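User: Continuing from earlier, I have the next pair ready.

Assistant: Great, send them over.

User: Here they are, in order.

Assistant: Folding the first of the pair now:
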Amino acid sequence: MRNRAVTDIAAGAIEAIRHSATGPFVTAPDLPLARAEGYPLIELTPGEHGIQLDGFYAEAARDYAQQAWAVLRHRVREGPHDRLGLTDAIALASIDGSPLACLIDGEPAECPSPFRFTAEPCGVDLLATAHDL
């Protein structure tokens, strides 16, 4: 059973990488550090100082191997990427104008392309556990 789980995980990782590599790339036209040809994945991480942007890519066989290893270990953020900067708002667009496939708090969503993401104050008090502080 354990071997089956490893096989399933590997197959899922390969399919995720294939989809990322063949789907429409995402661009951040307002960011001077971003690649003009775009990225298979741009991660937006909101924080108290704005939105941190990271563009993930795989160009060479070594990049694909690094990304596959990161996916298999559930550490996607360790794959090859460009640190694009910190901003309060960013417009993202797909290269071909198709809707942007997004994960928002882990939930699948679709946004029109282009779409502007902003960091806004939250008008509610949130609870955190001691290890989050």
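And the other member of the pair:
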Amino acid sequence: MAIIIENRKFQVSIDYDQSVEQMVLAGGYQKVHKDVTSSNFPSKEKGKGAIEILILKSDNKSLTTEEILDEMASLDLQPITIRELLALGAKFVDLERSVGPIAAFGSSINRNAPCIPCIFRTKLGRHIDLMMNLKGDCWDKDLWRFAAVRR
């Protein structure tokens, strides 16, 4: 197994009918990528719900996106979407300070390459950004965390 689930689980309420823009405001992000919009990330889900989000990390090496998704599937997990990431960030405003940057592979847009939403923190505050994800690129094992829910 190349990926492990961290010990904490995060209970999150989510309103899938909220716009991405509303969810960004609720999270208090200081820097927002210009393409993080409802038009670029339309919701496939509707209504309100509660989910349990798990945070995963690599246990021994940097992994490609394909390896991460295969590992998630082997654990009967699926990656969270941008709306689930934003709901997580709104409820747990210091999470990325304690665990590091978090990527949500359940949503992506193509901007010359697939781009994956992620949240992280710098000296300038909280960020919601899009990370370019070229085939074969690895996610640094010491830096990145990945969020998922049970299928």
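Worth noting for the second one:
The chain has a mean pLDDT of 94. The chain has one domain: 7-150.
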